Fold Aminotransferase.
Amino acid sequence: METLTNQLSDRINNLAASATLAMAAKARELRAEGKDIIGLSLGEPDFNTPDFIKDAAIQAVNDNYNSYTPVDGYVELKDAIINKFKRDNKLTYDRSQIVVSTGAKQSLYNVAQVCLNPGDEVLLPCPYWVSYSDIVKLAEGVPVEVETSLDTDFKMTPEQLEAAITPKTKMLWYSSPCNPSGSIYSETELRALADVLQKHPQIVVVSDEIYEHINYVGGHASMAQFEDMYDRVVTVNGVAKAFAMTGWRIGYIGAPTYIARACNKIQGQVTSGANCIAQRAVITALEAPVSKIQYMVDEFKERRKLILGLLKDIEGFECNEPEGAFYVFPNISHYFGKTLNGTTINNASDFALYILEQANVATVTGEAFGNPNCIRISYAASQDQIREALARIKKAVS
Protein backbone atom coordinates (compact mmCIF):
# COMPACT_ATOMS: atom_id res chain seq x y z
CA MET A 1 0.00 0.00 0.00
CA GLU A 2 2.87 2.35 0.84
CA THR A 3 4.31 1.76 -2.62
CA LEU A 4 0.99 2.74 -4.19
CA THR A 5 0.80 5.85 -2.01
CA ASN A 6 4.22 6.85 -3.25
CA GLN A 7 2.75 7.06 -6.74
CA LEU A 8 0.53 9.91 -5.55
CA SER A 9 1.58 13.55 -5.46
CA ASP A 10 3.00 15.15 -2.33
CA ARG A 11 0.12 17.58 -2.71
CA ILE A 12 -2.54 14.98 -2.03
CA ASN A 13 -0.52 12.98 0.49
CA ASN A 14 -0.06 16.13 2.59
CA LEU A 15 -3.72 17.16 2.32
CA ALA A 16 -5.92 16.55 5.37
CA ALA A 17 -9.37 15.07 4.87
CA SER A 18 -12.27 17.37 5.75
CA ALA A 19 -12.97 16.71 9.43
CA THR A 20 -16.66 17.50 9.09
CA LEU A 21 -17.11 15.14 6.16
CA ALA A 22 -14.99 12.48 7.87
CA MET A 23 -17.15 12.59 10.99
CA ALA A 24 -20.32 12.45 8.88
CA ALA A 25 -18.93 9.39 7.07
CA LYS A 26 -18.09 7.74 10.41
CA ALA A 27 -21.63 8.43 11.63
CA ARG A 28 -23.06 6.82 8.48
CA GLU A 29 -20.90 3.73 9.02
CA LEU A 30 -22.15 3.37 12.58
CA ARG A 31 -25.76 3.78 11.48
CA ALA A 32 -25.20 1.05 8.90
CA GLU A 33 -24.08 -1.17 11.80
CA GLY A 34 -27.43 -0.53 13.45
CA LYS A 35 -26.41 2.14 15.96
CA ASP A 36 -28.79 5.01 16.70
CA ILE A 37 -26.51 7.94 15.82
CA ILE A 38 -27.67 11.53 16.15
CA GLY A 39 -25.69 13.59 13.65
CA LEU A 40 -24.77 17.06 14.87
CA SER A 41 -21.59 17.30 12.80
CA LEU A 42 -22.58 18.58 9.37
CA GLY A 43 -23.37 22.19 8.53
CA GLU A 44 -26.55 21.32 6.67
CA PRO A 45 -30.05 22.68 7.31
CA ASP A 46 -32.58 19.96 7.98
CA PHE A 47 -35.28 21.82 6.04
CA ASN A 48 -36.41 21.00 2.53
CA THR A 49 -35.60 23.48 -0.21
CA PRO A 50 -38.58 25.89 -0.38
CA ASP A 51 -41.24 24.88 -2.92
CA PHE A 52 -41.04 28.13 -4.90
CA ILE A 53 -37.39 27.36 -5.66
CA LYS A 54 -38.08 23.73 -6.55
CA ASP A 55 -40.85 24.88 -8.89
CA ALA A 56 -38.37 27.11 -10.71
CA ALA A 57 -36.05 24.13 -11.19
CA ILE A 58 -38.88 22.00 -12.54
CA GLN A 59 -39.78 24.79 -14.95
CA ALA A 60 -36.17 24.95 -16.11
CA VAL A 61 -36.22 21.22 -16.86
CA ASN A 62 -39.45 21.62 -18.81
CA ASP A 63 -37.95 24.60 -20.65
CA ASN A 64 -35.13 22.31 -21.80
CA TYR A 65 -32.22 23.92 -20.04
CA ASN A 66 -29.60 21.25 -20.65
CA SER A 67 -26.63 22.89 -22.37
CA TYR A 68 -23.28 24.00 -21.06
CA THR A 69 -23.58 27.23 -19.10
CA PRO A 70 -21.30 30.26 -19.39
CA VAL A 71 -18.20 29.65 -17.27
CA ASP A 72 -18.98 32.51 -14.88
CA GLY A 73 -22.76 31.99 -14.79
CA TYR A 74 -25.92 32.90 -16.69
CA VAL A 75 -26.29 36.64 -17.27
CA GLU A 76 -29.71 36.54 -15.60
CA LEU A 77 -28.20 34.94 -12.50
CA LYS A 78 -25.34 37.42 -12.41
CA ASP A 79 -27.90 40.23 -12.57
CA ALA A 80 -29.86 38.64 -9.71
CA ILE A 81 -26.64 38.46 -7.68
CA ILE A 82 -25.85 42.10 -8.48
CA ASN A 83 -29.31 43.13 -7.30
CA LYS A 84 -28.98 40.98 -4.17
CA PHE A 85 -25.65 42.61 -3.26
CA LYS A 86 -27.22 46.05 -3.73
CA ARG A 87 -30.39 45.22 -1.80
CA ASP A 88 -28.86 43.35 1.14
CA ASN A 89 -25.31 44.69 1.39
CA LYS A 90 -25.30 48.12 -0.27
CA LEU A 91 -22.55 46.82 -2.59
CA THR A 92 -22.40 47.81 -6.24
CA TYR A 93 -20.89 45.30 -8.65
CA ASP A 94 -21.13 44.88 -12.41
CA ARG A 95 -21.25 41.64 -14.38
CA SER A 96 -17.48 41.54 -14.86
CA GLN A 97 -17.08 41.29 -11.07
CA ILE A 98 -19.37 38.28 -10.53
CA VAL A 99 -18.37 34.63 -10.90
CA VAL A 100 -20.80 31.78 -10.19
CA SER A 101 -19.20 28.50 -9.07
CA THR A 102 -20.09 24.98 -7.96
CA GLY A 103 -20.61 25.98 -4.35
CA ALA A 104 -18.90 28.63 -2.23
CA LYS A 105 -16.11 26.13 -1.53
CA GLN A 106 -15.09 26.26 -5.19
CA SER A 107 -15.33 30.05 -5.04
CA LEU A 108 -12.80 30.05 -2.20
CA TYR A 109 -10.56 27.54 -3.98
CA ASN A 110 -10.57 29.67 -7.14
CA VAL A 111 -9.60 32.81 -5.23
CA ALA A 112 -6.72 31.04 -3.47
CA GLN A 113 -5.41 29.61 -6.73
CA VAL A 114 -5.41 32.95 -8.56
CA CYS A 115 -4.12 35.14 -5.71
CA LEU A 116 -1.47 33.10 -3.91
CA ASN A 117 2.14 32.34 -4.81
CA PRO A 118 4.33 29.87 -2.91
CA GLY A 119 5.12 31.21 0.55
CA ASP A 120 2.41 33.87 0.63
CA GLU A 121 0.87 34.06 4.10
CA VAL A 122 -2.89 34.04 4.73
CA LEU A 123 -4.20 35.19 8.09
CA LEU A 124 -6.94 32.97 9.53
CA PRO A 125 -8.62 34.19 12.72
CA CYS A 126 -9.29 31.08 14.83
CA PRO A 127 -11.66 29.39 14.83
CA TYR A 128 -12.03 29.31 11.05
CA TRP A 129 -14.02 27.13 8.69
CA VAL A 130 -12.39 23.73 8.42
CA SER A 131 -11.36 23.92 4.74
CA TYR A 132 -9.67 27.35 4.72
CA SER A 133 -6.29 26.08 5.84
CA ASP A 134 -6.01 23.25 3.33
CA ILE A 135 -7.36 25.33 0.45
CA VAL A 136 -4.56 27.80 1.19
CA LYS A 137 -1.99 24.99 1.36
CA LEU A 138 -3.17 23.59 -2.00
CA ALA A 139 -2.31 26.97 -3.50
CA GLU A 140 1.13 26.71 -1.83
CA GLY A 141 0.25 29.50 0.57
CA VAL A 142 1.02 29.45 4.28
CA PRO A 143 -1.96 29.59 6.68
CA VAL A 144 -1.19 31.75 9.72
CA GLU A 145 -3.56 31.15 12.62
CA VAL A 146 -4.55 34.14 14.75
CA GLU A 147 -5.79 32.78 18.06
CA THR A 148 -8.95 34.33 19.52
CA SER A 149 -10.80 33.47 22.70
CA LEU A 150 -14.19 33.16 24.31
CA ASP A 151 -13.51 36.53 25.99
CA THR A 152 -13.66 38.35 22.64
CA ASP A 153 -16.54 36.17 21.37
CA PHE A 154 -13.97 34.42 19.14
CA LYS A 155 -13.38 37.61 17.14
CA MET A 156 -9.97 38.95 16.12
CA THR A 157 -9.05 42.36 17.53
CA PRO A 158 -7.27 45.09 15.52
CA GLU A 159 -4.24 44.64 17.77
CA GLN A 160 -4.08 40.92 16.96
CA LEU A 161 -4.40 41.65 13.24
CA GLU A 162 -1.58 44.19 13.33
CA ALA A 163 0.68 41.82 15.28
CA ALA A 164 0.11 38.96 12.81
CA ILE A 165 0.97 40.91 9.65
CA THR A 166 4.40 40.32 8.14
CA PRO A 167 6.00 41.33 4.83
CA LYS A 168 4.78 37.97 3.48
CA THR A 169 1.13 38.53 4.37
CA LYS A 170 -0.94 38.45 1.18
CA MET A 171 -4.50 37.77 2.36
CA LEU A 172 -6.92 37.75 5.30
CA TRP A 173 -9.79 35.21 5.29
CA TYR A 174 -12.69 35.24 7.73
CA SER A 175 -16.37 34.35 7.91
CA SER A 176 -19.16 36.44 9.41
CA PRO A 177 -21.40 34.97 10.73
CA CYS A 178 -18.59 32.61 11.65
CA ASN A 179 -18.53 28.89 11.14
CA PRO A 180 -17.96 27.42 13.76
CA SER A 181 -18.48 30.04 16.50
CA GLY A 182 -21.55 31.85 15.20
CA SER A 183 -19.87 35.19 15.94
CA ILE A 184 -20.67 38.23 13.80
CA TYR A 185 -18.35 41.16 13.15
CA SER A 186 -20.26 44.42 13.54
CA GLU A 187 -19.74 47.33 11.17
CA THR A 188 -17.71 49.08 13.89
CA GLU A 189 -15.49 46.04 14.40
CA LEU A 190 -14.91 45.63 10.66
CA ARG A 191 -14.05 49.32 10.36
CA ALA A 192 -11.43 48.93 13.09
CA LEU A 193 -9.87 46.00 11.20
CA ALA A 194 -10.04 47.98 7.95
CA ASP A 195 -8.13 50.84 9.60
CA VAL A 196 -5.28 48.41 10.29
CA LEU A 197 -5.41 47.08 6.73
CA GLN A 198 -5.11 50.59 5.34
CA LYS A 199 -1.49 50.53 6.47
CA HIS A 200 -0.90 47.35 4.46
CA PRO A 201 -2.30 47.89 0.95
CA GLN A 202 -0.90 44.59 -0.37
CA ILE A 203 -3.40 42.50 1.64
CA VAL A 204 -6.48 41.14 -0.12
CA VAL A 205 -9.46 40.23 2.08
CA VAL A 206 -11.81 37.27 1.62
CA SER A 207 -15.11 37.89 3.41
CA ASP A 208 -17.11 34.66 3.59
CA GLU A 209 -20.76 35.62 4.13
CA ILE A 210 -22.49 32.31 3.38
CA TYR A 211 -24.45 32.50 6.70
CA GLU A 212 -25.46 36.13 6.14
CA HIS A 213 -29.21 35.64 6.54
CA ILE A 214 -28.98 33.30 9.55
CA ASN A 215 -28.50 36.25 11.86
CA TYR A 216 -30.17 36.68 15.26
CA VAL A 217 -28.98 40.22 16.05
CA GLY A 218 -29.52 42.01 12.72
CA GLY A 219 -27.18 44.48 11.06
CA HIS A 220 -25.08 42.29 8.78
CA ALA A 221 -21.99 44.21 7.62
CA SER A 222 -19.61 43.54 4.72
CA MET A 223 -15.97 44.62 4.60
CA ALA A 224 -16.42 45.70 0.97
CA GLN A 225 -18.97 48.34 2.01
CA PHE A 226 -16.09 50.61 3.02
CA GLU A 227 -15.03 52.69 0.05
CA ASP A 228 -11.34 52.46 0.96
CA MET A 229 -11.54 48.62 1.08
CA TYR A 230 -13.87 47.87 -1.85
CA ASP A 231 -11.07 47.24 -4.37
CA ARG A 232 -9.33 44.77 -2.03
CA VAL A 233 -12.22 42.58 -0.88
CA VAL A 234 -13.64 39.39 -2.35
CA THR A 235 -17.17 38.86 -1.01
CA VAL A 236 -18.09 35.16 -1.05
CA ASN A 237 -21.67 33.97 -0.71
CA GLY A 238 -24.05 31.26 -1.86
CA VAL A 239 -27.45 29.68 -1.33
CA ALA A 240 -26.57 26.48 0.55
CA LYS A 241 -27.33 27.54 4.11
CA ALA A 242 -30.08 30.17 4.21
CA PHE A 243 -32.08 28.60 1.38
CA ALA A 244 -31.52 24.96 2.43
CA MET A 245 -29.85 24.23 -0.92
CA THR A 246 -26.62 22.49 0.12
CA GLY A 247 -26.84 19.85 -2.63
CA TRP A 248 -27.65 22.32 -5.39
CA ARG A 249 -24.00 23.49 -5.30
CA ILE A 250 -24.15 27.17 -6.23
CA GLY A 251 -21.80 29.78 -4.77
CA TYR A 252 -20.61 33.11 -6.09
CA ILE A 253 -18.24 36.00 -5.57
CA GLY A 254 -18.32 39.76 -5.97
CA ALA A 255 -14.72 40.84 -6.47
CA PRO A 256 -12.35 43.33 -8.06
CA THR A 257 -12.56 42.78 -11.81
CA TYR A 258 -9.00 41.46 -12.15
CA ILE A 259 -9.66 38.74 -9.55
CA ALA A 260 -13.04 37.82 -11.01
CA ARG A 261 -11.54 37.46 -14.50
CA ALA A 262 -8.76 35.28 -13.13
CA CYS A 263 -11.32 33.06 -11.35
CA ASN A 264 -13.27 32.80 -14.59
CA LYS A 265 -10.07 31.76 -16.36
CA ILE A 266 -9.13 28.99 -13.92
CA GLN A 267 -12.71 27.72 -13.64
CA GLY A 268 -12.83 27.45 -17.42
CA GLN A 269 -10.01 24.92 -17.25
CA VAL A 270 -11.31 22.95 -14.26
CA THR A 271 -15.10 22.64 -14.08
CA SER A 272 -16.50 25.21 -16.52
CA GLY A 273 -19.93 26.59 -15.65
CA ALA A 274 -22.10 25.41 -12.77
CA ASN A 275 -25.19 23.23 -13.19
CA CYS A 276 -27.79 24.77 -15.50
CA ILE A 277 -30.93 23.73 -13.59
CA ALA A 278 -29.51 24.82 -10.24
CA GLN A 279 -28.59 28.21 -11.68
CA ARG A 280 -32.13 28.82 -12.95
CA ALA A 281 -33.52 27.91 -9.52
CA VAL A 282 -31.08 30.26 -7.78
CA ILE A 283 -32.28 33.18 -9.90
CA THR A 284 -35.69 32.69 -8.32
CA ALA A 285 -34.22 32.24 -4.85
CA LEU A 286 -32.23 35.47 -4.96
CA GLU A 287 -35.00 37.52 -6.53
CA ALA A 288 -37.43 36.57 -3.75
CA PRO A 289 -37.74 38.76 -0.66
CA VAL A 290 -35.63 37.51 2.25
CA SER A 291 -38.83 37.24 4.28
CA LYS A 292 -39.67 34.04 2.36
CA ILE A 293 -36.95 32.14 4.25
CA GLN A 294 -37.48 33.82 7.64
CA TYR A 295 -39.35 30.80 8.99
CA MET A 296 -36.13 28.78 8.92
CA VAL A 297 -34.16 31.49 10.71
CA ASP A 298 -36.88 31.76 13.37
CA GLU A 299 -36.69 28.00 13.99
CA PHE A 300 -32.89 28.09 14.21
CA LYS A 301 -33.21 30.86 16.80
CA GLU A 302 -35.52 28.68 18.90
CA ARG A 303 -33.07 25.79 18.65
CA ARG A 304 -30.21 28.06 19.69
CA LYS A 305 -32.13 29.02 22.84
CA LEU A 306 -32.85 25.35 23.53
CA ILE A 307 -29.31 24.06 23.09
CA LEU A 308 -27.71 26.89 25.09
CA GLY A 309 -30.07 26.15 27.96
CA LEU A 310 -29.26 22.44 27.85
CA LEU A 311 -25.51 23.07 27.69
CA LYS A 312 -25.67 25.14 30.87
CA ASP A 313 -26.75 21.99 32.70
CA ILE A 314 -23.68 20.01 31.63
CA GLU A 315 -20.56 20.36 33.74
CA GLY A 316 -17.44 21.50 31.92
CA PHE A 317 -19.12 23.08 28.86
CA GLU A 318 -18.25 26.77 28.56
CA CYS A 319 -20.03 28.48 25.69
CA ASN A 320 -20.56 31.91 24.17
CA GLU A 321 -23.94 32.92 22.73
CA PRO A 322 -23.65 32.66 18.94
CA GLU A 323 -25.15 35.59 17.04
CA GLY A 324 -25.64 33.75 13.76
CA ALA A 325 -25.23 30.48 11.82
CA PHE A 326 -26.44 27.26 13.51
CA TYR A 327 -23.56 26.06 15.65
CA VAL A 328 -22.36 26.23 19.23
CA PHE A 329 -18.63 25.98 19.92
CA PRO A 330 -18.21 25.07 23.59
CA ASN A 331 -14.85 24.92 25.32
CA ILE A 332 -14.56 21.43 26.82
CA SER A 333 -10.94 21.61 28.05
CA HIS A 334 -12.32 20.95 31.55
CA TYR A 335 -12.20 17.25 30.61
CA PHE A 336 -8.59 17.17 29.39
CA GLY A 337 -6.53 14.79 31.50
CA LYS A 338 -9.64 13.16 32.95
CA THR A 339 -10.74 9.55 32.48
CA LEU A 340 -14.37 8.93 31.50
CA ASN A 341 -15.64 5.34 31.56
CA GLY A 342 -12.10 4.08 31.12
CA THR A 343 -11.25 6.52 28.31
CA THR A 344 -8.62 9.20 28.94
CA ILE A 345 -9.43 12.53 27.30
CA ASN A 346 -6.29 14.34 26.15
CA ASN A 347 -7.74 16.76 23.61
CA ALA A 348 -10.87 17.82 21.73
CA SER A 349 -10.47 15.02 19.19
CA ASP A 350 -10.50 12.44 21.99
CA PHE A 351 -13.58 14.08 23.43
CA ALA A 352 -15.50 14.15 20.11
CA LEU A 353 -14.65 10.48 19.52
CA TYR A 354 -15.70 9.60 23.06
CA ILE A 355 -19.05 11.36 22.59
CA LEU A 356 -19.57 9.46 19.34
CA GLU A 357 -18.77 6.08 20.85
CA GLN A 358 -20.38 6.51 24.27
CA ALA A 359 -23.34 8.80 23.50
CA ASN A 360 -23.89 7.97 19.82
CA VAL A 361 -23.75 11.69 19.00
CA ALA A 362 -21.59 12.98 16.14
CA THR A 363 -19.88 16.36 16.68
CA VAL A 364 -16.63 17.78 15.27
CA THR A 365 -13.35 18.43 17.05
CA GLY A 366 -12.35 22.06 17.36
CA GLU A 367 -8.83 21.14 16.26
CA ALA A 368 -10.14 21.06 12.70
CA PHE A 369 -11.15 24.72 13.09
CA GLY A 370 -7.89 25.86 14.63
CA ASN A 371 -9.05 25.68 18.25
CA PRO A 372 -7.94 22.55 20.16
CA ASN A 373 -10.06 23.30 23.26
CA CYS A 374 -13.53 23.21 21.70
CA ILE A 375 -15.95 21.03 19.78
CA ARG A 376 -18.50 22.16 17.22
CA ILE A 377 -22.11 21.10 17.68
CA SER A 378 -24.61 21.83 14.92
CA TYR A 379 -28.18 22.58 15.93
CA ALA A 380 -29.47 22.09 12.38
CA ALA A 381 -31.57 19.24 13.76
CA SER A 382 -35.05 18.92 15.23
CA GLN A 383 -35.65 20.09 18.79
CA ASP A 384 -36.41 16.50 19.81
CA GLN A 385 -33.07 15.36 18.41
CA ILE A 386 -31.27 18.19 20.18
CA ARG A 387 -32.88 17.29 23.52
CA GLU A 388 -32.02 13.61 23.11
CA ALA A 389 -28.44 14.34 21.97
CA LEU A 390 -27.70 16.65 24.88
CA ALA A 391 -29.22 14.20 27.35
CA ARG A 392 -26.93 11.49 25.98
CA ILE A 393 -23.88 13.74 26.19
CA LYS A 394 -24.75 14.76 29.77
CA LYS A 395 -25.03 11.11 30.77
CA ALA A 396 -21.77 10.20 29.04
CA VAL A 397 -19.74 12.83 30.91
CA SER A 398 -21.46 12.48 34.29
